[in-house]
Design brief:
heterodimer, A: Ferritin, two-stranded antiparallel sheet, two-stranded parallel sheet, 8 helices, about 60% helix, B: about 170 residues, mainly alpha, Ferritin
C-alpha cells in the first residue's frame, strides 16, 4: 500500500492521517477534542464541525478503498464511488450549515481516528466491517437521536441536514452488509478477517477513547465510555439490513436503549 | 466505410479503461490532497467517472463482448496516465487531469463520433454525449475551484506535448 504510511501506537499499527488543510488541528485522542457541555454556545458549532470532519474522513476512506482494492467486483466499486459523492455532498451541506451558524472550518480540533483504524486493515471486507458497518452504523445511532433533539429544540435546519445525511448513510451500511455477507458465503475465512478487524477496533478504542472521569481539552469531565453509547436506531438498522439477532446484540450492548421512530412529518 | 463492430468494441473498451483509471486517479488523490474543497470536487468526479465506465461497460455487452470488459490503451498512453497519477501538488494535479488528460479524452470521443455510422452506433453516441457534457462541467468546476483557492493554472508543457503525441487506442492484436 503506497502513499500514506503507518505509525505505531503501543502494539497497534495504525495508518498515518490523510492530508488536511493547514487550518485544521488534527489530534489523536478523544480527550483532545473540544466536546463541550450541551449548554455551551459553542457546542452546536463543534458538533456540526465534528460531523463535517467525519464526512471528509469517510470520503477519504471510500476513495482509498477504490485505489487499494482494484480487483474488487465492479458493482462494489460502483457503490464505493457513489459513496464518495455522497460523502462529498455531506461535507458541503455541513460546511454551509457551519457558516450559517457563524462557524468556520478549522474552528475546532478534529480527529481522523476512523481513517487511521480502517485504512490500517488489509482486506476490503474488514474495512467495510469497520467503516461502514461499525462507524457509519454508529453514526446512524448518534444522528438518529440528535436530529429529533435538535428539531425539538427549535433548530429545524440542522435537524433537516442531519436527517438527509442519515438517509444516505443507511445505504452505505446496507451495501456493506450485503457485500460482507456475499464475501463470507464465497469464502468462510473472510469471517476471520472481520472478527480480527472488530478486535483491532476495540483495542484502538481502548487506547484512544477518553476514560471515565478524564477531563478533556475544554475542561469537560468525560463519562464512562459505556455510558456514552448512544441509543440504538433500530428502525434504520433494520433498513440497513442488520438481522434481528444482530440488532438484539447491539441493543444488549447499549443497555437496551433504543429510539422510537421519530421522523420529520411528511 | 465506418468502423466495424470489432473496431468499435476495441475503442469503447479502451474508453472504459481510461474512465476507470480517471476514477482511480481522482480517488488516489483524495486522501493526499489537503484542500477540503478539492477533495469535495474529486468526490463528485469519482462518481462521474465510475458512471461513465459503467455505461461504456454495458455497451460492450451489446458489441459481442463480456459486460464491463476493458481494452488496454497503447503502452505510451498507459505511461502518460501513470505520470499524471504521480503528480503531487494540487495545482499540478488539477492542470494534469482537467487541462491535459480530459482535454485529450474529449478529443478522442469527438473523433470516435465522427468516424462511426451515427445511426448504427447511436447507443454508443448517447453514452458519449453524456460523458462529453459531464467533462465540460468537470472542467468548469476545476476552473472555479482554482479561482476560489487562488491556485495557478499551470499545465506542465512537457506533459501536454506528450499527451498530444501519444495514441490512446492500441492497434488490434497489440
Amino acid at each position: 500500500m503506497s502513499g500514506i504510511g503507518h505509525f505505531r501506537l503501543g502494539h497497534l499499527t495504525l495508518r498515518e492521517p490523510p492530508a488536511r488543510d493547514a487550518c485544521f488541528d488534527v489530534v489523536l485522542r478523544d480527550a483532545e477534542m473540544h466536546e463541550y457541555d450541551g449548554s455551551d454556545p459553542r457546542a452546536l458549532r463543534e458538533t456540526v464541525h465534528r460531523h463535517m470532519s467525519n464526512e471528509i474522513t469517510s470520503l477519504d476512506i471510500a476513495a482509498q478503498c477504490l485505489v487499494e482494492f482494484p480487483d474488487a467486483p465492479w458493482e462494489l466499486r460502483l457503490e464505493l464511488a457513489r459513496q464518495c459523492w455522497d460523502e462529498s455532498r455531506h461535507v458541503q451541506v455541513l460546511e454551509r450549515r457551519l457558516r450559517e451558524l457563524g462557524g468556520r472550518k478549522g474552528e475546532f480540533p478534529i480527529s481522523t481516528f476512523e481513517w487511521s483504524v480502517t485504512c490500517a486493515l488489509d482486506s476490503l471486507a474488514a474495512r467495510l466491517a469497520t467503516q461502514n458497518r461499525t462507524f457509519e452504523a454508529g453514526a446512524m445511532d448518534v444522528v438518529g437521536s440528535l436530529a429529533p433533539a435538535m428539531r425539538e429544540g427549535g433548530d429545524r435546519e440542522t435537524a433537516a441536514v442531519l436527517d438527509g445525511i442519515l438517509a444516505d448513510e443507511v445505504h452505505h451500511v446496507r451495501f456493506a452488509n450485503r457485500w460482507i455477507k456475499a464475501m463470507v458465503e464465497q469464502d468462510r475465512r473472510v469471517l476471520l478477517k472481520v472478527a480480527s478487524a472488530v478486535r483491532f477496533l476495540a483495542e484502538a478504542n481502548a487506547a484512544l477513547l477518553a476514560k471515565a472521569g478524564e477531563e478533556n481539552a475544554v475542561g469537560r469531565v468525560m463519562a464512562d465510555p459505556t455510558e456514552r453509547v448512544p441509543a440504538v436506531n433500530v428502525e434504520d438498522r433494520r433498513l440497513a439490513e442488520f438481522t434481528d439477532d444482530e440488532i438484539h446484540e447491539i441493543l444488549r450492548q447499549a443497555g437496551f436503549r433504543s429510539l422510537l421512530p421519530q421522523r420529520e412529518p411528511a | 466505410m465506418s468502423l466495424s463492430v470489432a473496431d468499435r468494441a476495441r475503442r469503447i473498451g479502451t474508453f472504459r479503461f481510461v474512465e476507470v483509471r480517471l476514477m482511480e486517479i481522482a480517488a488516489g488523490w483524495t486522501p493526499t490532497t489537503p484542500e477540503m474543497e478539492a477533495k469535495v470536487m474529486f468526490g463528485r468526479h469519482i462518481w462521474d467517472f465510475a458512471q461513465h465506465a459503467d455505461a461504456l461497460g454495458r455497451r460492450m455487452f451489446e458489441l459481442r463482448q463480456p459486460a464491463q470488459r476493458s481494452f488496454d490503451p497503447a503502452p505510451a498512453y498507459v505511461t502518460l496516465l501513470e505520470e499524471v497519477a504521480a503528480v503531487e501538488d494540487t495545482a499540478g494535479r488539477l492542470a494534469a487531469l482537467y487541462d491535459v488528460l480530459l482535454d485529450g479524452v474529449q478529443q478522442q470521443y469527438r473523433r470516435y463520433a465522427e468516424e462511426v455510422d451515427a445511426m448504427l452506433d447511436a447507443p454508443s453516441l448517447v453514452v458519449i454525449e453524456h460523458i462529453l457534457a459531464d467533462a465540460r462541467r468537470q472542467r468548469e468546476e476545476a476552473d472555479q475551484l482554482r479561482r476560489a483557492l487562488e491556485l495557478p493554472f499551470s499545465p506542465s508543457p512537457g506533459l501536454r506535448a506528450r499527451a498530444e503525441a501519444v495514441e490512446m487506442v492500441a492497434a488490434a492484436g497489440a
